[in-house]
Amino acid sequence: MTALVLTRDQAGVRTLSLNSPDRLNALTAALATQLLTALQAAAQDPGVRVVVLTGEGRGFCAGQDLSEVAGPLMSGQPLDLEAHLNDHYRPVILAIREMNKPVIAAVNGVAAGAGASLALACDLRVSSESAQWVQIFSNIALIPDAGSTWFLPHLVGFGRAFELMALAEKVSAGQAHALGLCQQVYPDETFTEQTQAYAAALAARPAQALALTKQALNAAMSSRLEDALDLEAKLQQQAASSQDFREGVQAFMEKRVARWAGA
Ligand code: T3D
After folding, report:
1. What CATH homologous superfamily does 5-203 map to?
2. Which of the ends of the chain has fewer CB neighbours closer than 10 A, N or C?
């Protein structure tokens, strides 16, 4: 079986790289299935503290592989996109959101359509200088899917999200950064190294506190302030019961760097 997702481990960071470079890592059902399996394995592996999602070659991900739908579409066969999205995209997006570890999208090249959604579903995004981001769906008269209608307005506001989606404008790395779509932009030549260093810095942070922070932020995205305050209090109690909390306070008092145990 062709490995459509490559896996590399370094210093607690697992890098998952989409591996269909000739088509800019466009998503087939097989690729989405392998990505889901890889995400689930990373979630369950205690040695993995941070996950990086990137693409092989010059693209990050060009969205749905249109060669997969072109045949049936042209021959007039009915396409069940609702089932396709529910079976292949939804589990991947939820696996990223539900993973109790930071997931970074390392957007090494164009992120288009559901490929952009994939990046937006991650907790953090870094972009290479030459990467382009495009909500390309309306170019083929589709609506944004794989979570873009939820993630994008949260990140950039309703009006800007609608404009990006309606006009399918290509956004450069610099624009993506200015809009708040990505946290860092790195030169192409040093992109892999700088991404690894960024991920390693996160991997060195107290893992349980980060997991609980992600849980609280996930809930806060769709909750009332009162509910967010309740959940914060509950999760803070859990964080404060950890060995890392005791170590953090002790290290502060002793004016030294904390040694995180991850629990
Ligand atoms: O089925 C469902 O469930 C519906 C779900 C839909 C979700 C979606 O994601 S809809 C959006 C689908 N994606 C697109 O419409 C993007 C199509 N691609 C492009 O518009 C351009 O390729 C890009 C703007 C992304 C990049 O342009 P450029 O000039 O850098 O590269 P290129 O030359 O167009 O592409 C390079 C190769 O990749 C090329 O193949 P070739 O000619 O060298 O053999 C191209 O056909 C192939 N490729 C790029 N994107 C796709 C693709 N092949 C299949 N599917 C693609 N999405």
Report:
1. 2-enoyl-CoA Hydratase; Chain A, domain 1 (3.90.226.10)
2. N
pLDDT band with cut points at 50, 70 and 90 for residue 226: confident
Expressed in angstroms and rounded, the spacing between residue 43 Cα and the centre of ligand 1 is 30
Which residue CA neighbors atom 25 of ligand 1 most closely? 62
The reported pTM is 0.94
Cβ–ligand 1 distance for 113 under 6 Å, the answer: yes
Is any atom of ligand 1 closer than 6 Å to the C-beta of 229? no
Q: Regarding the domain delimited by 207-253, which CATH topology (the fold level of the hierarchy) does it fall under? A: Lyase 2-enoyl-coa Hydratase; Chain  A, domain 2 (1.10.12)
Query: How many angstroms does the Cα of residue 96 sit away from the middle of ligand 1?
Result: 23
Ligand 1 atom with minimal separation from the 113 CA:
9
Helix H or strand E segment including 128: strand 124-128
Q: What is the pLDDT of residues 244-255, one digit of tens each?
A: 988 988 888 899
Cα-to-centroid distance, 259 and ligand 1 (Å): 46
Q: Give yes or no for residue 73 CB within 6 A of ligand 1.
A: no
User: How many degrees, rounded to 5, is the angle at CA 98 between CA 205 and CA 58?
Assistant: 80
Pick from 24, 96, 99: nearest CA to 58: 24
Taking only the tens place, the pLDDT of each residue in 196-212 is 999 999 999 999 999 99
The residue contributing the CA closest to ligand 1 atom 30 is 110
Residues of the chain with CATH 3.90.226.10: 5-203
User: What per-residue confidence (pLDDT) applies to 172?
Assistant: 98
**Nearest-angstrom CA–CA distance, 124 and 102:** 8
Measure Cα distances from 52 to 19, 22, 120, 136, 254 in Å: 14, 21, 13, 24, 34
pLDDT score of 152: 96
